[in-house]
Amino acid sequence: MQIGGSGCAVTAADDPSDTLNGGGSRLYPIPYLYYAGWLTDEQFPEVINNGTYEIAPLFKKANATVVKGLRLFRSDGSYLTLELRTPSPGFENWPADDPFVNGVIVRIARFSGNSVSNTLVDTTPTGIHGMSDAPLRPGASADDVLSGKRITVSHIDDTGATLEISDSQGSSLADHLLFERSFIEQAVQQNDEGVED
Questions:
Q1: DSSP 8-state assignment for residue 52
Q2: How far are the Cα atoms of 25, 30, 41, 82, 116 from residue 35, in angstroms, in the given order?
Q3: Torsion (CA) 85, 87, 89, 94 in degrees, nearest 10
Q4: Residue 11 has what pLDDT?
Q5: Which pTM was predicted?
Q6: Which of 1, 50, 96, 177 is most buried per CB count within 10 Å?
Q7: Domains of the chain: which residue ranges?
Q8: How many CA atoms within 13 Å lie on the side-chain side of 165?
Q9: Is the pLDDT of residue 185 over 60?
């Protein structure tokens, strides 16, 4: 499955895991928590190197150093974010067989000086269930064109998810993105600034 390629489209479909975008009483997705300062860089680190990563369930009680999600910088200044949820009483009362608690939720997030936005990625675009089966399931992979990375979910259980992050096959973007990042960030910041008279 490819993210950011020519076959991708942004729709107005609801996000069942985002209370601000059709998710009902669900708790906030990880980009909002990070933007509000409720998660630290340590809890929501940026992936720089390829390797095996583990993330804990987003709303499961843990010490302050536990990684709750991951973010990957993209060539357009956005981030690909990864989070895992588990059923719990109250707002996160998902059925045990729901894809949103049996897969890694993938989003495209944009952070600017005074706002944050996120878009749920449907990692099963050929499925018949729309966004209700959007998360990336164990054994599945997604290639992100704009970060040059492949995300593979190796394992999920009650303690968290194990992910493999590697370069997308045939992509040279990952090799160059770190060096070009400061230029990209400056361009994005300039686009976010308003013109004043």
A1: E
A2: 20, 9, 11, 15, 7
A3: 100
A4: 53
A5: 0.81
A6: 177
A7: 2-6+13-191
A8: 23
A9: no
pLDDT band at 88 (very low <50, low <70, confident <90, very high): confident
User: In which residue are the tokens 């997604």 written?
Assistant: 142
Say how far apart CA 163 and CA 159 lie, in whole Å.
13
Q: Which amino acid is at 176?
A: H
**Which amino acid, 12?**
A
Among 103-112, 123-132, 169-178, the least confident range:
169-178
Torsion region of 7: left, alpha or beta (phi above 0 gives left; psi -120 to 50 gives alpha): alpha
Which are the contacts of 121, defined by CB distance < 8 A and separation ≥ 6? 3, 80, 106, 107, 108, 134, 142
- 142, 150 in Cβ contact below 8 A? yes
Q: Is 181 helix (H, G, I), strand (E, B) or coil?
A: helix
Q: Which helix (H) or strand (E) holds 64?
A: none
pLDDT value for 197? 40
SS3 of 188, please? helix
Radius of gyration of the chain (CA): 16
